[in-house]
UniProtKB/TrEMBL annotation:
Belongs to the Nudix hydrolase family. Its cofactor is Mg(2+). The keyword DNA repair applies. It comes from the Bacteria. The keyword Metal-binding applies. It catalyses: 8-oxo-dGTP + H2O = 8-oxo-dGMP + diphosphate + H(+). It comes from Phormidium tenue FACHB-1050. This is 8-oxo-dGTP diphosphatase.
Length: 146
C-alpha cells in the first residue's frame, strides 16, 4: 500500500507523440539513437517527444520531427497507443504512420539516424515499450501483404 501510494505520487507521467516515418517507397522506417546520457541512453527509438498542453498528437509529431531531425512529414493514420510503466516513469506513446515529405534527416537531438526495414528492427536495442509498436507494424504489414 505504501509502495502504491509512493508510485502514484512520485512517478512522472508523460504523453508522447511518436512517428513511424516511411520513406517514399514505403520500404524503410526512420529510427534514431538516443544520446549517450539521460533516460534510455543509447537506445534506438522512433522519433517524437512530449505533447505540449495545446497540441494534438499530430501537431506534436510534426513539430518534434522538425525540431529533432529537420524533416517535414505528413502525419497519417494512428497505428497504436502504448501505455507503459518504466521504473520511474509512466508513458503513453501515441504512434502514427508518417510520410517523409522533405529534408535530409539531421541528427540534431540524437546521436545517429538510420532507415531500416520492419524486419531489421529486431536487431536494434529498443525501449521495452517499443516491442508493442514493432508487433503492430508486423501485423499491419502482413495484413497489407494479404
Ligand atoms: N520519442 C520516443 N520516446 C520513446 C519511445 N519509446 C519510449 O519508451 N519512449 C519514451 C522515452 C522517454 O521517456 C519519452 C520521450 O522522451 P523524449 O526525450 O523523446 O521527450 P522530448 O523529446 O519531449 O524531450 P524532453 O522534453 O524530455 O527534453 O518516451 C520512442 O520510440 N520514441
Ligand atoms: Mg524526443
Amino acid at each position: 500500500m505504501t509502495n502504491l501510494r509512493t508510485d502514484l505520487t512520485t512517478k512522472k507521467y508523460r504523453c508522447i507523440g511518436v512517428g513511424v516515418v516511411w520513406d517514399r517507397d514505403r520500404q524503410r522506417i526512420l529510427i534514431d539513437r538516443r544520446l549517450p546520457e539521460g533516460e534510455l541512453a543509447g537506445y534506438w527509438e522512433f522519433p517524437g517527444g512530449k505533447i505540449e498542453g495545446h497540441e494534438t498528437a499530430t501537431d506534436c509529431i510534426k513539430r518534434e520531427l522538425q525540431e529533432e531531425l529537420a524533416i517535414d512529414v505528413e502525419v497519417g493514420d494512428h497505428l497504436i497507443t502504448v501505455d507503459f510503466e518504466y521504473e520511474t516513469l509512466r508513458v503513453s506513446l501515441i504512434v502514427h504512420h508518417c510520410m517523409h515529405i522533405s529534408g535530409e534527416p539531421q541528427a540534431i537531438a540524437c546521436s545517429e539516424i538510420r532507415w531500416v526495414t520492419v524486419d531489421e528492427l529486431d536487431t536494434y536495442q529498443l525501449p521495452a515499450a517499443n516491442y508493442q509498436i514493432v508487433h503492430a507494424l508486423k501485423e499491419s504489414k502482413s495484413l497489407n501483404c494479404g
